[in-house]
Amino acid sequence: MLESPTAHVPPLSLTDEAANPAAFAAALGGSFERFGFAVVSDHGVPADLIARAWAMTEAFFALPEETKRAYFAPGGGGARGYTPFKTEIAKGASHVDLKEFWHVGRQLAKGHRFEAQMAPNVWPDQPEGFRETFIELFAAFDTAGDRLLSAIARHLGLAPDWFDHAVRDGNSVLRLLHYPPIPADAPGVRAGAHEDINLITLLLGAEEAGLELLDKTGEWLAIKPPEGAMVVNVGDMLQRLTNHVLPSTTHRVVNPAPERRGHSRYSMPFFLHPAPDFLIETLPSTITAERPNRYPTPITAHDYLHERLVEIGLVKA
Ligand code: OGA
Ligand code: NI
């Protein structure tokens, strides 16, 4: 595959969110409106925690296939635990994705009102410390996500705490992804063109090449974040809520240049979801004469997620 040109997504620093919230909100909103993506440094997730999480991720995926398969729950929609190589297929794609992954969800107290919609976590027996590491990382992503959402709210002219209620005890998922080495002549791509389902996605690990966005111009552009930066993108729920003011941009992970094909690629997206009972109802301020309401019928986050998981083959109708 020919190398795609680089997307000029402006680098942002989350430090500015505290120092100059209005300017940060405008910059983040501008980046989202142009690309559906933003590149954010100084996101507050501690570097040593991230390093531990990469080590755990590599150690887990290095386990024998049978060991990993013990954590696969067929029919569970891949919501928690392990999903083997070549299971997920992007909507409308002809090849399955060349990836295996692990999903961590929110730890809910027993008897929590969302227990029926949010499955309990599954934890592997090894590597040691996996559970503690990812509970801690989940919380750190939650904090970073809250700060980003408050900037998004400002950009949309809402109260900075507008999303607090929407995402409290939300159905977010932390995905540990492994794209194994591929043969020189592998067909297809590591992850087919798709849009994310959730509000926003916070991604670590995109320094290893492959992630591309489909630009408004119709061109595929490579995303090349600086070391340690987070790639943040708008998902379909936020696009729907904002009547497409903030676009959920199609993206994919292409197979790398031949000299990198012998290497694994690891990444960690945090799919930030609202609470299951949050009603996705078009924000009135995003409806105008030129931009009529595309979604006159609201839908709960839970029902919307279910519809989408059926489409990508993770849940049976
Ligand atoms: C995803 C995704 C990108 C990556 O899992 O939805 O787009 O770089 N991942 O792995
Ligand atoms: Ni994605």
UniProtKB/TrEMBL annotation:
Pathway: Alkene biosynthesis; ethylene biosynthesis via 2-oxoglutarate. Residues 169-274 form the Fe2OG dioxygenase domain. It catalyses: 2-oxoglutarate + O2 + 2 H(+) = ethene + 3 CO2 + H2O; L-arginine + 2-oxoglutarate + O2 = guanidine + L-glutamate 5-semialdehyde + succinate + CO2. PROSITE patterns: FE2OG_OXY. Keywords: Ethylene biosynthesis, Iron, Metal-binding, Oxidoreductase. Its cofactor is Fe(2+). SUPFAM superfamilies: Clavaminate synthase-like. It comes from the Bacteria. Belongs to the iron/ascorbate-dependent oxidoreductase family. This is 2-oxoglutarate-dependent ethylene/succinate-forming enzyme. It comes from Sphingomonas psychrolutea.
